[in-house]
Structure formats: structure tokens, C-alpha cells
Amino acid sequence: MKAVVVYKTRYGSTKTYAEWIAEELGCEMRDAKSVKAAELKEFDTVIYGGGLYAEMINGVTLLTKNMDILSGKKLLVYTTGLTPLDCRDYYDKMVMEKNFPPEIRDKFKVFNFLGKMIISELSLPHRAALKTLKKIMSGKENPTEMEKLLIELCDADGDFTDRSAIADLVACASAQ
Ligand SMILES: Cc1cc2nc3c(=O)[nH]c(=O)nc-3n(C[C@H](O)[C@H](O)[C@H](O)COP(=O)(O)O)c2cc1C
Description:
This protein is of the alpha/beta class. The protein has 2 domains: about 5-115 and about 160-175, Flavodoxin domain (Rossmann fold, 3-Layer(aba) Sandwich); about 120-155. The protein is built from 7 helices and 8 strands. The structure holds flavin mononucleotide (FMN).
């Protein structure tokens, strides 16, 4: 099996997971910034990691818009985010629907990991986006459980990355 881990990161957590996965699999890793889809032709297994930003997987269109080039390959995607991992509707419905058109959804195996958000390190636009989101959600008269959770997540501050979380992805990548 020839595998590659491609990652796109803003604040580092997606890269940290890429390093752990590449180390476990003994494969190379590449920053998505300098990867063209055609360069992925030589690999049997492509693992893509991206942080979640407003439910979108940062840069995953490198794969989803190039399915012709990637056909026949094992395609694994991991997300890093702050939404608790037991929010399965969020991950399995909302994130899947927003990032993978129905006709290609079954070509991907998707894994979700917890990421990192250090408020003092965020860019001004990101801080402003979280502030606005919190204001909108807090103004709702009868917020849903998800909306209440979003309000909390806007203030999450910490590193929740966890090396042990990659085990299933590594096993899936290694399986024949
Ligand atoms: C503006 C903004 C929007 C975010 N949106 C989401 C989101 O929709 N879902 C989620 O679970 N986490 C969200 N997060 C948290 C990031 O996904 C988390 O910090 C992740 O670890 C970022 O990975 P990266 O630093 O490698 O890009 C958001 C963070 C910021 C700053």
C-alpha cells in the first residue's frame, strides 16, 4: 500500500494528526497548499485532513472536485473540530451533506477527531465570526440543543487533540 496524508490547517491541530498518522503508517505527508490533485495519482490510499469551519472541511474539495483522478483509490478523510464526537447527527448528517455530494458520498470513509482552539491565537476575522455567531444564537427565543451547544463552543478554549483517536483510521488505511 502506498499512502499519503494530505492536510490543511489554520492553527496546527490538523497537521498534528497528519504527523501522528504518517508516523503510524510510515508514509509521507503533504501540506494541501502545495498539492495538485494529479500528484495524488501515484498513491493507492489518500488520507485527507481538514479542520471544520462552519461545518465545511477545510480544503476537502481537493478530493471531491477531482473524483475522476482519484477513482479506484482508498479515500479516507478526517475532520478536526470542537463539536463533541457523540453529536452523530452533526457529523454523519450535516457535515456529510455539506461536504460530499450524494453521488460520491459512499466513496469516502470519514473519521472525526477533536481539535484545538486557543482563543488568543485566533485571527481577528475568526474571533469576529465567533462573536457574531454567539450573538445570533444567544438572541434566539427557544434555542435547540444544537444551538445551545454552539453558544458554548464559541468560548471553547483549549487543545483537545488525542493521539489515541487515530487508531480506527490507521487500521482502515492498513487493511487490504
Ligand atoms: C471561525 C471558526 C469556525 C469554526 N467552526 C467549527 C465548526 O463548524 N465545527 C466544529 O466542530 N468546529 C469548528 N471550529 C473549530 C475548529 O474546527 C478547530 O479549532 C480545529 O481544530 C481547527 O483545525 P486547524 O487549526 O488544523 O485548522 C471553528 C473554529 C473557528 C475559529
